[in-house]
Write a structure and sequence with these properties.
alpha/beta, Rossmann fold, 7-stranded parallel β-sheet, 6-stranded parallel β-sheet, globular, hydrolase, hydrolase activity, EC 3.6.4.-, helicase
Length: 736
């Protein structure tokens, strides 16, 4: 008997322990959900007064006569306007009592007027967007940025933890209620047979959930998420700096929390309902991803997964690379091991850096003299291989099922089916079960070229694309290509427009660039080192990328301003841009210090006055102050600047009041040399201080006061580069 009671007692203790552990996990799940909820409420609390103020400004600008439109002309408002109430905002602020005091205005008119004003107010409240001005922070926007910073910094892991916590709470809560009697010996003794049976069954399910949670490290995930959600920014300056670096993530969260998402049809690229529904139900695993997605980006990734072989044609600046990485991460989580990215040499380094920064995937560059050894290593170990179009031609095409996804960036580069690079891509696309072509070039107006791309993905869709679809207009075209093509425009999907998007474009120097750079280092000539990447235009990697940026901006109808510190670099750029835009895109400038101030503004005005795309060339110090270039929505900076404030002021010429599109800034940077050293030094030593100083009037007036010494920085970089390239034994000359 004692043995029987002991056995029953040990079973009871095991169940009690299971219920207690289940209760602790449930509390942790509730805690992380609560911490996240409070962080979200902090954002809402900070957002409300800013949004209310934006709504009031909008209503104060709507003339009272608009109330006639809402009531279909039933209101007589002459006496109201004579009383001094000239805007809808004024009517709402006056309220019913004051309105009734206006001669000739009765109760019925007051009721109709206020009802119409409230309807307009609701419409404005739904549509008005909050814009955060990084150059004019105030207590309200600072509070909002700091509240958002908590959620952005917590990142995808916190979001993942909250999702898991919500699901777990829904499953665990009812089980703990049923398992209540098993929590104590006495309660189990007095429970009826049915309750005992239910309690034992619930305890068994709880144990299964606990085992599942331990296997996936759930407790640690919850604990870390709670810590991250409770940790605020070290200062308002740190939050503002982070906002400048990752504004897209802040705006993404803001749109999500404010509950004002962009138009669903626009997000879904106006796809037919059947395809859109299939895409919506496609699961997207974020286990190997380190970045959150905006709603339209998640839809783009799901589209690629659901449709298997597609073209993602989003407008420049919407994050096609991030969407591709999301697809790669999902497939890796499903067990796929090998992936191939093909891109122009000019963006090879960017792809490797983005994959490393935004995912946990292994990345391998298949480029240069050792590319075949790298290819063999990738074949054996897996990961994401990144190759150029020419490089791909030298590798054997895979067998069926070997490669989980082929990504082709700048896919319009393979529009000519007779070109060898196109044939290589077509063969790989045929052998891969999934293919993702990416291009920011609008393909709707190039039916023949577009058909060539589509044929690599789906022959039936390509055959259906006759001239009739093109002539029938965009609706017919979209319907015909919907199974393989998704394109969204910035103005349709970015309701909370990020006012500034900055991209560092890392380029690998060509052999000729490298030779010119070594000569400059050997001479100890710092300024020559900075512009060596442009000395031999025919083989310049930076110039190739610059041409691509200008061409894509032009094809999207956008104007571009190109900044450099050096006149000779601008001359080289001018020749390259003129030669690289056969459609005759007008090129203005260069604006240099030798151009009289009055003439400079005339050049800018001429640039702004051209309908459609145009390019303006400007010396960064000459054009950085006093000129307004808000006609440009794409900015290219040819080399990093010694003084961060000079770069900031130049960008501010385009990114300012009156700019109706987000500004996209591309900094052209060469790996492994002076550019990389300058970026690292300036980021490490001046980023926080510069961000703080830029917010003071004194620093704005005297930028030199907050920048590092030109001479000291130049001397150090020259010496370090001579040492890196093995030139320390040669006579060192003073940096220019």
């Amino acid at each position: 008997m004692r043995g029987g009671r002991g056995g029953a007692g040990s079973v009871g203790r095991g169940e009690r322990d299971t219920v207690a552990r289940g209760a602790r996990l449930y509390e942790a799940a509730q805690a992380v959900a609560g911490d996240h909820g409070r962080a979200v409420e902090s954002v809402r609390g900070a957002l409300k007064p800013i949004h209310d103020a934006a709504v009031k400004r909008e209503l104060d600008a709507i003339p009272v006569a608009r109330l006639q439109d809402v009531t279909e002309g039933r209101l007589r408002l002459g006496s109201v306007e004579k009383s001094g109430l000239r805007t809808v905002g004024g009517v709402l602020e006056a309220g019913p009592y004051r309105l009734r005091q206006i001669p000739g205005v009765g109760q019925r008119t007051v009721d109709q007027m206020l009802a119409a004003a409230r309807r307009l107010s609701e419409a404005v409240r739904e549509t008005v967007a909050v814009h955060i001005d990084v150059d004019r922070p105030d207590p309200g926007t600072t509070a909002l940025v700091m509240a958002l910073h908590v959620l952005v910094e917590a990142g995808p892991d916190a979001r993942r933890a909250v999702g898991r916590a919500t699901v777990l709470s829904e499953r665990l809560g009812p089980l703990l209620a049923d398992a209540g009697p098993a929590a104590g010996r006495f309660r189990m003794l007095v429970a009826g047979r049915e309750k005992k049976a239910r309690a034992l069954a619930a305890a068994t399910e709880i144990r299964s959930l606990l085992d599942e949670g331990e296997g996936s490290g759930l407790s640690g995930l919850f604990a870390q998420a709670s810590v991250d959600l409770l940790r605020g920014p070290s200062s308002d300056i740190a939050a503002w700096v982070d906002f400048e670096l990752r504004s897209a993530e802040y705006y993404s969260l803001l749109a999500e929390i404010s509950g004002r998402p962009p138009d669903a049809d626009a997000v879904e690229g106006f796809l037919p309902d059947a395809i859109a529904e299939r895409v919506r139900t496609q699961h997207l695993d974020d286990t190997h991803r380190r970045v959150s997605l905006r709603g339209y980006q998640a839809f783009g990734a799901r589209f690629a997964l659901a449709q298997r072989k597609v073209i993602l044609g989003d407008e420049m600046g919407l994050g096609k690379t991030i969407q591709a990485i999301a697809v790669l991460a999902h497939l890796a989580a499903e067990g796929q091991s090998h992936f191939m990215v093909v891109c122009p040499a000019s963006v090879l380094v960017n792809w490797t850096r983005e994959i490393e920064a935004r995912s946990a995937l292994r990345v391998m560059v298949l480029h240069g003299p050792d590319r075949h050894d790298a290819f063999a290593d990738w074949k054996g170990r897996g990961g994401v291989a990144v190759s150029t179009f020419d490089g791909l031609r030298g590798f054997p095409a895979p067998g069926g099922g070997e490669v989980g996804l082929l990504v082709v960036d700048e896919a319009h580069s393979v529009k000519n089916p007779k070109a060898k690079r196109s044939q290589a891509v077509a063969l790989w696309a045929e052998r891969c079960g999934r293919t993702l072509f990416m291009t920011g070039t609008p393909m709707e107006n190039r039916v023949v070229e577009f058909r060539n791309l589509v044929r690599m993905l789906d022959g039936d869709v390509a055959d259906s694309l006759g001239e009739r679809e093109a002539l029938a207009g965009s609706v017919a075209f979209r319907k015909a290509v919907a199974p393989v093509y998704l394109r969204r425009n910035q103005e349709d999907v970015l309701t909370e427009l990020p006012s500034l998007q900055q991209t560092d474009e890392w380029e690998e120097l060509s052999a000729s660039d490298e030779e010119a750079y070594r000569e400059a280092v050997r001479a100890g000539n710092f300024m020559a080192m900075r512009r060596a990447a442009y000395l031999r235009p025919a083989t310049s990697a930076k110039l190739d990328r610059l041409r691509e940026i200008v061409q894509e901006a032009g094809e999207n109808g956008q104007k571009t301003v190109v900044f450099s510190n050096f006149k000779d670099v601008l001359s080289v750029v001018r020749e390259a841009v003129v030669a690289g835009t056969p459609d005759g895109t007008p090129v203005f400038g260069p604006l240099t210090g030798s151009v009289p101030a009055g003439r400079r503004q005339q050049i800018v005005d001429d640039f702004a006055g051209v309908p459609g795309p145009a390019v303006l060339l400007a010396q960064i110090q000459a054009a950085g102050i006093g000129l307004n270039m808000q006609a440009a929505s794409v900015v290219v900076i040819c080399e990093p600047q010694i003084k961060p404030t000079i770069e900031h002021q130049a960008v501010a010429r385009a990114h300012r009041m009156g700019q109706v599109r987000p500004v996209r800034v591309h900094r052209l940077l060469a790996t492994g040399g002076v550019d990389e050293r300058m970026v690292k030094m300036l980021e490490d030593k001046t980023r926080l201080f510069d961000a703080y100083a830029r917010r003071s009037a004194v620093a704005e007036a005297t930028p030199d006061a907050v920048d590092v010494s030109d001479t000291e920085l130049a001397r150090r970089i020259v010496e370090e580069e001579q040492a890196r390239l093995g030139m320390t034994d040669e006579r060192l000359t003073a940096a220019e």
